[in-house]
Structures are given as C-alpha cells and as structure tokens.
Description:
Jelly Rolls; mainly beta; 5% helix
Amino acid sequence: MIVTPTALPDVLLVQPTVHGDHRGFFVETWQETRYADAGITLPFVQDNQSRSVRHTLRGLHYQVERPQGKLVRVAAGSIFDVAVDLRRSSPTFGRWVGTMLSDESHHQLWIPPGFAHGFYVLTAHADVVYKCTAFHVADLDRTLRWDDPDLGITWPLAGSTPPLLSTKDAAAPLLRDVEGYP
Length: 182
C-alpha cells in the first residue's frame, strides 16, 4: 500500500493494493502490522457504515472528551471527504483537507483524533464505512458548521442545489464558537 501525508500531515491518504482480474477484485482494507508501519497505531473499537443519497452532506462531526480517530473508505459510490483540525495547540488548527474517495479507487483517509470529519455525496448514493478508535457517545457528539466562512471549505456542490443536511448539522456552530481540543 502507499501512504501519503496530506496538506495536514497527521491526516493520511492510504492507497491499498488492489488485486483485480476478470472476476472482480480483492483488497485488504485493514491489516494491523502494515497500518502500524504507516503510523496508524491506535486500536479500533467500532466499525460504522452509512448510506446517503446524492447531495447529502454529513458533518462536520467530532466527539469531545473521547475523540475518535477514523479510517474512512467508500464501499459504494463516491464522496468528497473532509477533515478539519480542531486541536487548538496545533499549528494547523482550523485548517482543512479534502479528498475524493470512491469504490473505484479504494483509497482510504486516516483522520486522527482531534479532527472534525464530514463528507458530501457525489453519486446517486454512497456507502461510507469507517473504523473508529473510540466508541460513539451521543452526549459527547459535536458538530461544526460545514459552510463556516472562516474555514472556507471548497465543497464540490452541484450547482445551485443545496446540500441535504440533518437538522443538527444545519444548526451547527461556527469554528470560533465550538468546543475543541487543547
């Protein structure tokens, strides 16, 4: 596999080796030793999957007190995946990185603890699968406004079609008002 640091060095793009032939493909999506060699050493405790329709924007989500690292991949469809650094002590605090993930590329994005995460669905639907380093605790779940002008995220929105948002995501606070990390 090929592991490439992004513009936020702690966020890694993982390109697993895909073995394909006329029957289809095989890809190893997690192997503890290889990922540890790449610097992803935290234990995973929970796997999640979501299905979303085109134009859905989920995020930006994070969890206080028990921050989650996430290894994100797409099992079906295509998304624009985003990580935002919420570590106030970090030189990259408030910066974001985004990348396309799809079932065709098999790429994964490692988002370490201390980052908010969100994605926008580019295809008719997308199944997003991610491994987490901490359990989800609803009372600790927080959101960051997806269109905060101070972040300036360049979402690949479809023309004048507004993104489909949950009520919680639509009411999310701005970066200057969020509960972040030290």
